[in-house]
Write a structure and sequence with these properties.
It comes from Crotalaria pallida (Smooth rattlebox). By secondary structure, the chain is α/β, with parallel strands linked by helices. 41% of the residues lie in helices and 11% in strands. The radius of gyration is 25 Å and the shape is globular.
């Protein structure tokens, strides 16, 4: 896309977006503001083609007792609802009285029965009134994100066949080959902005859950709506059912999916290929997020589609981005500049799709800081020691995973460090004395007392422990274990939520939740609003660096490297703005609706942030107007 003159006259469509503001305290004066933008997600009437009970049974349009008397007359609802017209605040108060009967927050992991009970109550609200559901979720995001997403969503997926009541999303199975192009037109929405798709093969750290894995796609899209303001009528959860290798599900008569072993090889690829072609033909501008595909396919599918379609893999790229943000934050917490990141010694436990994704992203980040040349990449590689189920990965390993090969250590060099092929995690930590111990293993308790004791030898002034595996029971260690063994002068982050640790004498050990939800909503929203045709490495890097810089110096020095989930909409706005800016700089942006790429180029940072904010959907009841088909 050619650069254009900065003196080019403003287009008429852009001028329409400039607004006159009345100067505060002086209504007689008007001034032309900096560029402001009318929101596409603004308040305007919605045309509906149904009335009476049909409206009350449609969660997209149902307002329950909040229908005004005028609307009740217009939509034939008078007499079908109690006479008292309630505000949304009163509706929520009534709902919360029911929900708050479960006083214990779902913070103790999937074993906590209150978590699943809360999920059931929220899900019933979702089934009958979407606006109210998202209003409750956004207002209480810190409390309910762990219920609709990790860790509770893992328990939901494990029990989904029994919990299923009402279809939400679409199912494309191996039995549908040759039919997917017509199937996509069964979905009623003419515009879909975001799809989250899974094949259920590796749900969190719980393994193959087959068709029940659609729960993770539903949960992710709830966060796209709550955090990024994606319109809930334009999201689509998808399950690609190619069978399951879970023998328990294959023998379960109540299982809802195909009871056959998983397709493999070209048969598997043909199903996913047909799905991708179908959804992009119907919705050419949709963004597809791949979620919880087993490592065997995660990288292969990412490489297969990323240069052709607007897609990304959250486990590989989202997890990597959050980890990079945390690693850069850990450098800041040591009182150093982020540019010192290439000096960090990092031991990584886990070489699955998430682990390799983090390693690749971290190496690229280090190399970019060192000059982005061959020598820089070689130097960056030397900062990582990768340990999997067989121990330290070296060049001496037989049948080494090709994705892990770039991080295999030289045997002679390891010999000089007192290490060998297959050395245990404890041995590696003792000899390397790392600045960072990063867990992406899905093995609960892997960072044992012996491993944490070994980390006492770290050469860092403030070592960092990242126990990133989900759900809670798969975390490599708890913050209590880390702080009790290593003391207060550490940085701790986890994938699932834990409470801060009381260290006594007024001191607090901060538990940072390094959750993907800090990034994937902003990556999706920024890609959507920029109109970028692909999701580039630069856009992902911009998102990670934006998150890393979000915290103030004071917060970081206190050991707080990730913000509170309560700030998620503001975080997402900033991340989306960073993604848009990078897409424009890389000449990938093609614009969105009324905003063409030339106009995007003219916006400064504040104007991009305003543009993003004004396109974030908020849960407010629209005025409904009936129109006969």
């Amino acid at each position: 896309m050619a650069m254009f003159s900065k003196h080019l006259r403003l287009s008429s469509s852009f001028l329409q977006r400039l607004r006159l503001h009345v100067t505060a305290g002086n209504p007689g004066r008007h001034k032309l503001s900096s560029r402001s933008f009318t929101t596409i997600e603004g308040h305007r009437p919605s045309i509906v083609h149904k009335r009476s009970l049909d409206i009350l049974h449609d969660p997209w349009f149902n307002k329950g007792t909040a229908f005004s008397m005028t609307e009740r007359d217009r939509l034939d609802l008078r007499g079908l609802l109690p006479p008292n017209v309630m505000s949304t605040d009163l509706q929520i108060e009534r709902f919360m009285v029911d929900l708050k009967r479960l006083e214990v927050q779902a913070r103790d992991g999937p074993s906590d029965p209150n978590a699943l009970a809360k999920w059931r109550i929220l899900n019933r609200l979702h089934d009958r009134n979407e606006v109210m559901y998202y209003k409750v979720l956004i207002a209480n995001i810190e409390e309910y994100a762990p219920v609709v997403y990790t860790p509770t969503v893992g328990l939901v997926c494990q029990n989904y066949s029994g919990l299923f009541r009402r279809p939400r999303g679409m199912y494309f199975s191996a039995e549908d080959r040759g039919e997917m192009m017509s199937m996509v037109y069964n979905w009623p929405a003419d515009q879909v902005d975001m799809i989250v798709v899974t094949d259920g093969s590796r749900i969190l750290g719980l393994g193959d859950l087959g068709v029940q894995g659609i729960g993770i796609a539903i949960g992710k899209l709830d966060l796209y709506v709550a955090a990024a303001g994606i319109n809930p009528q334009r999201v689509l959860p998808v399950m690609i059912d190619v069978g399951t290798n879970n023998e328990k599900l294959l023998k379960d008569s109540l299982y809802l999916g195909l009871q056959q072993h998983r397709l493999d090889g070209d048969d598997y690829l043909s199903v996913v290929d047909e799905f991708m072609e179908a959804v992009f033909i119907r919705w050419p501008n949709v963004i597809v997020q791949f979620e919880d595909f087993q490592s065997k396919w995660a990288f292969k599918l990412l490489q297969r589609y990323r240069n052709t379609y607007r897609m990304f893999n959250d486990d590989v790229q989202g997890t990597a981005g959050v980890a990079i943000a945390g690693l850069l934050g850990a450098v800041r917490a040591q009182g150093r500049s982020m540019i010192d990141f290439p000096k960090q010694k990092i031991v990584v436990a886990g070489a699955g799709s998430a682990g390799i994704g983090v390693l690749n992203a971290a190496r690229k980040t280090m190399a970019r800081m060192l000059g982005n040349n061959e020598e820089a990449f070689k130097s960056a590689k030397s900062q990582f020691w990768v340990v999997d189920a067989q121990g330290l990965i070296t060049e001496g390993r037989e049948n080494i995973d090709p994705d892990a090969l770039p991080f295999a250590r030289n045997l002679k060099e390891m010999g000089r460090q007192g290490l060998r092929e297959g050395a245990s995690l404890v041995e590696v930590v003792k000899q390397v004395k790392p600045d960072v111990l990063l867990g992406l293993s899905a093995v609960g308790g892997l960072f044992s007392k012996e491993v944490l004791e070994a980390l006492k030898g770290s050469t860092s002034t403030r070592p960092a422990i990242f126990a990133m595996s989900n759900p809670t029971k798969n975390a490599e260690c708890t913050p209590e274990e880390a702080f009790s063994i290593l003391g207060e002068n550490i940085i701790f982050a986890s994938g699932s939520p834990f409470s801060d640790v009381d260290l006594g004498n007024g001191n607090v050990g901060h538990c940072n939740q390094g959750n993907n939800m800090y990034l994937f909503p902003g990556i999706g929203l920024g890609t959507l609003l920029s109109g970028a045709r692909i999701v580039s490495d630069g856009m992902l890097q911009a998102a990670a660096e934006c998150l890393a810089a979000y915290m103030s110096e004071e917060e970081v020095l206190q050991g707080i490297i990730f913000p509170s989930i309560s700030r998620i909409r503001d975080i997402t706005k900033e991340v989306a703005a960073a993604v848009i800016k990078e897409a424009v700089e890389e000449d990938l942006a093609e614009g969105y609706h009324g905003m063409d790429p030339r106009e995007l180029r003219k916006l400064n940072q504040d104007e991009i942030a305003e543009y993003v904010k004004n396109h974030m959907w908020s849960p407010e009841y629209p005025t409904l107007v009936y129109k006969k088909d």
